[in-house]
Design a protein that fits this description.
The protein is α+β, with helices and mostly antiparallel strands and 714 residues long. 51% of the residues lie in helices and 11% in strands.
Length: 714
């Protein structure tokens, strides 16, 4: 079907940025456009019908769907062996925690020399902002990728749709199962696919919201809209298997039944220049009514022209990222999952298990043939433990007229074949006992076990690396969305800005290490790097320590490790030795000062003792005073007392000076009236008090009393 439009749209900046081009086309063109889109979609659905049925069977095995059986008899064994289920859970349990390690989800690689650290700082801002976008702003992001890891490991392919939501003014990532993205038969990749249709169910409120925001054509008065949503035959067939696995049944249509729309990413020549522009056409599947037409690029820079101003190429904005589990060996667009790889073996294993169970049932409850002349009452005979039934015939006659059915025990050959199929199925999906967490044996050496685990992880290594590359492509799309839609004046988390997104988008990647598949591998690698950094020169210790803490998955590790810039440098060894020597000299001087101070205190104590002795002698001399000789002796006492008082005052000043020097050195000067200084004044006061108390006659006699005794005895 060739699409011909009677009215054409000029390709300029206004039309490129238009939220909807429907109003620039007449009704006849819109009808032709809707029919053209639906015809292409219908052909694409038919081209992948066999693929759809095979993957539905694989999903049935993964979800342990048991189908009704009546052979070899009603109620026979009907076990669905969980090979696909085990393989799916094994992959998901390893891949998802490593790909989504925590809040540091995205990184921007620094290439080349960065002596000033500007690129590293920019990379940190981009990583912090994009990680915040995925984990905080886009709340369903983690849940969508959790579902993605399970779904595409069974089906082989799944998609993440990265787009700019005009309603929420933020980037949004939607999980799109392969069943809801119908691609052209000739497609070799998502990027080069000429036509892909995303099936979207929308409620009435969703439609009204888009109409009132001006991004959809007003269809609220259309007859098909007023009649309500309904699923056609293709939609019912598509949802039948999903409902059966979930135990649901599609109800009759009512006001809450959603309308199914197709968002077709294709190429249409809207300006009639001979080159089909990349566009997105949204239409309702039942009525084929077109509700929106927009260009699939945002800038005039995406248009490449020749010297004659003719369009040579237009670089479209690709929204879909394909996650491919295992590439198809024949180069097909859809990958292979456990449902296709292990599904046939899973069905054979289930058949063998059911046959062995049925054989055991026949062997344990076998019937036989009963002759007519056995003279037994008709009907069935049942026995309970320790029960004997009475019959009207002799034992020999009863034995001769009853022939058991010739059955055998369950076949040992079938059991060995069952073990063989399970073993090879586990080899395909790498679900061996050790990888499933089971003990291989008590006598297995540790190195042998580690080598077996490493070899068993090889299959997962290639799949995990492929998932890492797919996530890199997804982050690249988000990076380009930020480069186009970021508000220059809006503050962004992580202190990022629009200028940060003007670099090379190929440098964006997940922060996960594609070569690490387990926590043990991650810790061993980080520990080995850390040991090498502390034993050999040339490493950036801060970067190594940061890598080590991230490998440990320590939350908020920045609160524990501040970096070398915030830690004082280590002291110089020679300076520390000299410092210790100086401290030793200072301690020795301090000790000498203390000894000198204690000597002064001892001298003061002895002087006080002499003073007390002389006071007693002076008091006695006063009582016995008489004559010239006694007066001369008192005058001699007075001179000695004056000398002693000067000496006592000098000792006190020396002691105060020594204590002040010691406190000044230690930086422990204290207010007056405390500690050593108070003690000195107390001792000095004691000496003066002794002198005044020694002579009731006056200070002169007190002086004589102080030194007189010492002079007399001398």
């Amino acid at each position: 079907m060739i699409l011909e439009l009677s009215k054409h749209i000029t390709l300029d900046l206004k039309s490129i940025r238009s939220p909807n081009l429907v109003d620039q086309l007449d009704e006849n063109d819109l009808e032709n456009l809707g029919a053209w889109c639906w015809t292409g979609y219908d052909a694409d659905v038919a081209s992948r019908a066999n693929w759809f049925r095979r993957n539905e069977a694989g999903m049935d095995l993964a979800m342990q769907l048991v189908k009704d059986k009546s052979f070899p008899w009603p109620g026979c064994a009907n076990v669905a062996f969980p090979l696909v289920t085990i393989a799916t859970l094994q992959f998901h349990s390893r891949a998802y925690p490593e790909l989504v390690p925590g809040k540091d989800l995205v990184q921007y690689e620094v290439w080349g020399e960065d002596p000033e650290g500007k690129e590293a700082a920019r990379a940190g801002r981009i990583g912090a902002h994009m990680s915040h976008q995925c984990l905080k702003e886009d709340e369903p992001w983690q849940d969508n990728h959790d579902k993605l890891m399970i779904n595409y490991s069974v089906v082989g392919s799944a998609f993440i749709k990265s787009r700019r939501s005009t309603a929420e003014n933020k980037n949004v990532s939607d999980f799109v199962p392969a069943r809801y993205l119908v691609m052209d038969y000739w497609a070799k990749s998502v990027e080069t696919c000429s036509r892909k249709t995303h099936l979207i169910p929308l409620s009435r409120n969703d439609i009204v919201e888009r109409v009132r925001k001006g991004i959809w054509k007003d269809i609220t008065k259309e007859a098909w809209y007023e009649a309500g949503g309904d699923a056609d035959q293709k939609q019912q067939e598509r949802e039948a298997g999903k409902d059966k696995r979930a135990g649901l049944e599609m109800p009759p249509p009512d006001d809450l039944t959603p309308f199914w729309f197709g968002e077709q990413h294709t190429y249409v020549d809207l300006d009639n220049d001979g080159y089909a522009e990349p566009v997105i056409i949204t239409f309702e599947l039942n009525s084929k009514c077109v509700v929106r037409v927009v260009y699939r690029f945002d800038r005039e820079e995406d248009i490449i022209r020749n010297n004659d101003n003719e369009i040579v190429k237009i670089q479209p904005e690709e929204q879909f990222t394909r996650y491919e589990f295992i590439p198809s060996p024949d180069g097909g667009i859809y990958g292979l999952g456990w449902g296709l790889l292990v599904g046939p073996l899973n069905e054979s294993v289930s058949t063998l298990v059911n046959q062995l169970l049925d054989s055991g049932t026949v062997n344990n409850t076998a019937g036989g043939f009963l002759a007519r002349n056995a003279k037994l009452r008709g009907g069935k005979y049942t026995f309970s433990p320790f029960e004997w039934l009475t019959v009207d015939v002799s034992g020999g006659t009863l034995k001769e007229n009853m022939v058991p059915l010739p059955v055998r025990e369950p076949s040992d050959v079938l059991f060995k074949l069952l073990v063989l199929l399970i073993d090879y199925s586990n080899r395909i999906c790498a679900s061996t006992e050790m990888l499933a967490g089971e003990n291989p044996g008590q006598n297995t050496p540790a190195q042998t076990s580690a080598a077996m685990v490493e070899q068993g992880m090889k299959i997962f290594a290639s799949i995990f690396t492929r998932a890492w590359r797919c996530m890199k492509d997804e982050f690249k799309k988000i990076y380009l969305l930020n480069a186009v839609h970021t508000d220059p004046g809006k503050p962004l988390p992580g202190f990022a800005s629009l200028e940060d997104y003007k670099g090379d988008p190929s440098r964006i990647s997940p922060s996960a290490d594609p070569t690490v598949l387990s926590e043990t591998q991650r810790l061993l690698k980080a520990t080995a790097l850390r040991q090498a950094a502390y034993t050999a020169p040339g490493y950036d210790i801060e970067a190594v320590e940061t890598y080590y803490l991230k490998a440990l998955r320590v939350p908020n590790w920045q609160t524990f490790y501040k970096g070398k810039d915030k830690v004082p440098p280590l002291p110089n060894f020679k300076m520390e030795v000299e410092k210790l020597k100086l401290q030793g000299i200072q301690m020795k001087l301090k000790q000498q000062r203390m000894e000198f101070a204690f000597g002064l205190l001892e001298e003061k104590r002895l002087n006080d003792a002499h003073i007390l002795q002389l006071e007693a002698q002076a008091a006695k001399l006063v009582e016995e005073a008489g004559g010239i000789q006694s007066g001369q002796r008192l005058e001699a006492f007075k001179g000695v007392i004056e000398i002693m008082k000067g000496r006592q005052e000098l000792v006190g000043k020396q002691f105060d000076l020594v204590m002040q020097q010691m406190k000044a050195q230690e930086g422990e000067e204290k207010p007056d009236g405390e500690d050593q200084q108070g003690g000195v004044r107390k001792l000095a006061g004691t000496s003066g008090h002794a002198g005044s108390a020694a002579s009731p006659a006056g200070g002169a006699h007190a002086g004589n009393g102080v030194m007189g005794g010492g002079a007399v005895h001398a």
